[in-house]
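In this supplementary section we document a worked example of the pipeline. Step one takes a protein sequence of length 289 as its only input; no multiple sequence alignment statistics are reported here. Step two produces a three-dimensional model, which step three serialises into structure tokens for compact storage. The input and output of this example are shown verbatim.
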Amino acid sequence: MTINEILTQTIGRLERGGLESARPEAEWIISDLLETSRTGLFLRAREEFPGEHASQLEEIITARLNGHPLQYLLGYTEFYGRRFACDPRALIPRPETEVLVEMVLSHLKVYVPPRAGFRPLVWDIGTGCGNIAVSLAAERPDLWVLATDIDKPALNLARENIKANHVEKQVFLLHNSLFDAISPARRFAAICSNPPYVSESARDTLPREVQDFEPHRALFASSNGLVFLQKLISTAGQYLQSGGLLALEIAYDQADAVRKLLWANGEYKAVKLTRDLAGHERVVTGVRI
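The serialised model returned by step three reads:
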């Protein structure tokens, strides 16, 4: 069978399995197996599909139809224009989190523009696979980024991604729970986090691939998903420089509650909500007074 025939067949199987993103997933699977780009996939459409990849393709399709996230099956994903190793040790980076990175970079561009001999310090709390910390460091080579997480396996995965993206001299990993081991004497130009924010009551509404395969510790939070957001908002101001930014990813239905928490805290000005590409209010930011 030709590559195009295999692609068509794979799309059909994924569609029948109920996957809404059947076509892009099929293109990703086959282009990965053939070690080519998606453009290359179509340029080679009439070539014979290599038989040595048939069994591997079947394994991936079967696992995907059984709910396994494709990113875990292939071992990587793309985030902010870079490749990140991806496995069950940490959450899968998602496009909406790129909004968080963008907000931090936009603030730093004005607040601490690059200048010789000065290195702003940013803290990524709950770094997971390191996608936020690595992206910030790669985009701003003058930054130092502290990346912390309570989960040691996640930190090991982050270490792999830091090395693969060549930012070892900028990103520093620490096994830590929220603010426990950090002195308030250390002041940051920005603190950002994509914390657990899914309410326990919403567990059954999540897609099967999320419920069954992604780490629950990084997903769910009590108090309607707000417990970690409350802790971050109540304490982060002690660690931020005046004019420093607090940037938090939130659930689509938490915007009003989190905005009120920031204003009530009294340490922030310019509280702002930013929407993701789906139109949901996804990132809340506040500037330390």
